[in-house]
Amino acid sequence: MGEGKNLVGVDIGASSIKVALLKDARKKFQVVRWGFAPLPPQTIIDGHVMNASVVTETLLKLFHDQKISQHDVAIGVYGQSVIVRKITVPMMTQAELDEQITWEAEQHIPFDIKLMSIDYEVLRKRPAAGQMDLLLVAAKKDEINDYAALVREAKLRPLVVDINAFTIQNMFESQHGLPPDNMIALINAGAAVTTLNIITKGVSSFTREITNAGNFITDEIRKSLGCSYEQAEAYKCGGPTEIVPHEAQQVIVQASATLAGEIQRSLDFYLATSGESEIHRIYLSGGSAYLKPLAEAVEKRARVPIQFFDPTVNLAVDSRHVNEPKFRSMSAQMVVALGLSLRRDGEQRRWSA
Ligand SMILES: Nc1ncnc2c1ncn2[C@@H]1O[C@H](COP(=O)(O)OP(=O)(O)OP(=O)(O)O)[C@@H](O)[C@H]1O
Ligand SMILES: [Mg+2]
Fold it and tell me: Which residue minimizes the CA distance to atom 9 of ligand 1?
């Protein structure tokens, strides 16, 4: 953990923007601010911001309405513009590594290194073998810069850029620790993207983004029932007063099975190529984690016990500024924003924008 105050976590998702600010209160983290604002459909398509002014205005309004005066933020990005590789290099000092890393990256990254921002993390030192394992992360500068510029338009200072999959891992680790022996999978099913991160012996060993998630299920309902997107979304999300037609329920089950099939193919791919045997447990987060048929379909296909990952169970809440029942009811959607807020000011990373 670095020095300084926690940054405001800003998660710009396909369906909504989530923000959160944690404070390190002696034993627990405390949530001191949070906010959620839906984005109109088509604002973000395939991870690209189509309507920058809507994003900027929504951010400005969120910070204003939630009385968030701190403007130092950490932002999350998806992996399409990011390449992650586990690499092995000779043992060297931090200073040597800082000097060498670009050269090392060139050996592993199939793009012009001048166009990339490079970051790394030392995973394991193996002095006996004279080697160390690194997680090398390279992001396209253009895309990161565009994204940071968008956030700056909302008068925010993006000090850290992180990858959603690792942010979720950090949040999980801070709350539960990572199992030292077992292999687990962290899956975040959002609106447009499902993020997968397999963690073996406490280290991320495989990440993938499937560009399919909750929107697909809503769209299938809309097409089958010939209703509006809003109505289909309401059927999917249920709610105490919503009477869900039988046909919609059937479509939800079918579409969930399709999505679970895609997730399963990624898990199978990893198991087949890594020679690893068994995933011990899957932890599901993201808004689509609330969809029971999806969790059931993933569990059935993967034949791995699945558990809802609620990142807020061990968090204290500052009730002066946080409507606790509302905040906790959206816990699965808040994981990225919360994980980003674990990052601190003064923690020097190359991606500091
Ligand atoms: N109670 C619920 N039941 C079923 N689905 C839900 C429920 N609540 C939210 N969702 C779904 O969760 C999705 C939004 O989740 P989330 O906020 O994690 O996505 P996002 O961050 O906006 O998108 P992405 O991560 O894909 O960019 C939507 O598809 C929404 O329909
Ligand atoms: Mg998301």
Answer: 287
